[in-house]
Amino acid sequence: MQRETEANAGLQEAPIRWLFIKNVDTEVIPARGVCAIDAVNDDGSISVKRPTRNGQTDVLFNSFVAVSPGEFGQGTQSFPIIAAYAVDPQTESDPANGEIWGPEMGSWYLQKALPGFRVVGTGSDGLVNVIPMSQQVVSFVKITSTVQEDGYYPAVEMLFDPVTLVWSEGDVVWWRDANEV
Prior knowledge:
Number of helices: 0
Distance between the termini: 69 Å
Radius of gyration: 19 Å
Order of helices and strands: EEEEEEEEEEEEE
Helix content: under 10%
Number of domains: 2
Largest sheet: 5 strands, mixed, barrel
Number of strands: 13
Strand order of the largest sheet: 1-3-2-4-5
């Protein structure tokens, strides 16, 4: 029987649950890329594409094999997971243990200072181990115009990450003031 050491104390190897994915995007999904869930298909596969908003959490991570547009592959939500990331352009640094990195709208790669995932260990060669962040992202609605359409104001969802103190824009929404009804 293997003796627990400080390095593996309390850690258990869990099987990875692989799901069939279909790339419905126009770009190749890179190995370990972050994929937004688009739909569940009749054949049981999950259609995926590039994230549609910063900090998106309804995502899967691609396997170690790139997936061309229209093709099938495998993705997972089993954590910890190895994820692809883009080097921080401001500091040209790799992820460090405990930092928060998350999906960026239109990118297959995790980006620094966006909510979503906490780094476990350090990143190297564009890959890093991550787990879901435990803090909740706060969502607000920002009215973008005072002109109403059918009683609704055009607005954008604003996401605030209390860990990184970063605001990012989410989906465009329509908002109705309950006091004006």
